[in-house]
User: Fold Deferrochelatase from Streptomyces griseoruber.
Amino acid sequence: MTETKDDTNPSRRSLIGWGGAGLALGAVAAGGAVAMTRTGDDVEPTAAETGAAVAFHGANQAGIATPVQDRLHFAAFDVDTTDRAEFVQMLKDWTAAARRMTAGKTVGDGAYGGLAEAPPDDTGEALGLKPSRLTLTIGFGPSLFAKFGLADRRPDALVDLPKFAGDALDASRSNGDLCVQACADDPQVAVHAIRNLARIGMGKVSIRWSQLGFGKTSSTTPDAQTPRNLMGFKDGTRNIAGTETDRLKKFVWVGEKDGPEWMVGGSYVVARRIRMHIETWDRTSLQEQEDVFGRDKGEGAPVGKAKERDEPFLKAMKPDAHVRLAHPDANHGSTILRRGYSFTDGTDGLGRLEAGLFFLAYMRDVSNGFIRIQRNLATDALNEYIQHVGSAVFAVPPGVRDKDDWWGRTLFSEEA
Amino acid sequence: MTETKDDTNPSRRSLIGWGGAGLALGAVAAGGAVAMTRTGDDVEPTAAETGAAVAFHGANQAGIATPVQDRLHFAAFDVDTTDRAEFVQMLKDWTAAARRMTAGKTVGDGAYGGLAEAPPDDTGEALGLKPSRLTLTIGFGPSLFAKFGLADRRPDALVDLPKFAGDALDASRSNGDLCVQACADDPQVAVHAIRNLARIGMGKVSIRWSQLGFGKTSSTTPDAQTPRNLMGFKDGTRNIAGTETDRLKKFVWVGEKDGPEWMVGGSYVVARRIRMHIETWDRTSLQEQEDVFGRDKGEGAPVGKAKERDEPFLKAMKPDAHVRLAHPDANHGSTILRRGYSFTDGTDGLGRLEAGLFFLAYMRDVSNGFIRIQRNLATDALNEYIQHVGSAVFAVPPGVRDKDDWWGRTLFSEEA
Assistant:
């Protein structure tokens, strides 16, 4: 929860003053946070005070247990350099940039006061925008561990995902050596962050694929209403909330007994691009739709119950109902922290909406988490209406502890 | 400004009550509008009262002079049916759905109270969300006038766009018989609207291409700060504001002298998908960037001036500066109402961000508006960093006047 203060560096806000604060796009913090009403530019906001900036430093990375922001830009990178020192330096540079951007500052302090002959340190499109609860979360893919002599440091829990029934994976939308998840309440802030990291990484890494997302499809805020997915159903009712310390410890954070040591306080993330056959779904009867999910569409209540959060009675549902098959009781108690976003990427070549769910889930154990549950969903009635078209898994290292720490230090540093 | 009231039909809000109001995603109205603070579900909000719903009825269509919303979903459709009566019925059905959706209601009144055996009237993903200032604006492309015996009703002003220097147009992202522009402060509301219109049109029309956009890149609100484009520059400082009745009449609305009669109160819209060569731009020096635009990057002031809104002195700029070439003084006084959005559609096959500006502009006269200005931009220094990859033009008919009126009536109705 450490906040670095550096009054000598320009913040995005102080550069233009607060004249434009009334206009700042989409910068109102949601999910129970309080909107900023400041009129001066000399005080750094804190998360507790305003909800507008999320602390970058901590034992765990932000962006996992953090209340879900409205927008996502997720990018997977391939590593191009073979020079370990160069790659480590890039991770340090990324960390410094992430620390500043999540605080609402420009990437470098010479952005507009520096040399006119040089490219600006910051691309500038987030100037004047608030921090917008930006979080940046890094992950390391299985393929990274084949590089830089890291083979013996690959966690046992970072297994390659098996092929699941119905998978139709596009290699150009799958895997990657690295990932960065950028979440913010303003899409321009999330896009700006990924773009500037890509720019800093130029020549060392390149973007393999990326995904924009909107409209929280799950919520880590326990009492808030569950958002609807693009099928019109509430999804993620019983998700793990960021305040549930016990469930986070049990299902999300890598513990000391799990190992390896460099991953303690970290997690694993599974990303799946799930295309929805929207047009088919929209021609399906209400009864069939409700049977498929095991909930009613309006309220979101489990079959036979009145309210969304009523305890589901699984046996009242059809055997292939989504809720029944995904429930912890059907998966030896397993559950995962879901943090997915809806996406709409225009139209496919056949006049159909290219839309669906970009599923993101964090877990302590990939085999006992996503793999177990996804295998159990092989008979899910929902499978008729969806298809998994992209897939990736990453080891998410622990948080950056202070201003001298950096993303990946525990993996790369000899002293770790 | 007529608001229909229909207390017998469920609104999106009354279906779930207001318990979720605190969570409604991104539904806070921006651009000077006032956020809703209602706690009851029995009163329909009005635009004047809350800013959360924009009136659907009026002499002009909403979504043109309306203060720009945060998000865009724009879709171009091909007409598949050859049956004029069937097409006209679809336009009537679309109008009824648009009237309801812009008021925050479900598409039909049987959405969840109707038959379980039938598909729901509404796809449901906007249930519980506020109207979010949704506007829906329809346009008719040149190719539509080759159908349904409409050839002699095509406006002279609806010219085909010529090929401009540097164009690299993708046919699959260009043209269309129809377009619908959906703008809202919540992307899920905009996406929901396009999807439901596509669903109603199934078998009669199909989506040819569509585009998501975010982050207003121009503002029709005169005193608000101008948003930045993805090059980090303020763009659209001297845009026509929705309150400037004289400039709207002169440059945007088709007048009685212009004809044809069915277009009076309408306008023309030009859509251009402009890809930015982000990576090249980001490696360009600050001085070069500022020279290209003719503004400084931080404040947005014209060359030699202190403030964004200071009167530009064009001769102080380089001859190929964007502001200098686009200025009305360089175009025989011509100007257009810009309403574009930034886009980021992931990554191209070469690891570069697929990002840029989805340019939308409304004008009374296409030849004297967009075509004149775009020709003058042939020598624009900006052309080194951008490429036009999609293009379309549409005639935008006048507004729907009341609950008996419908989109396209003045074009299709014999009595018109």
Observations:
- Chain B touches chain A through 85 residues (CB under 8 Å).
- The longest helix of chain B spans residues 84-102.
- Residues 71-114+132-411 of chain B form one domain.
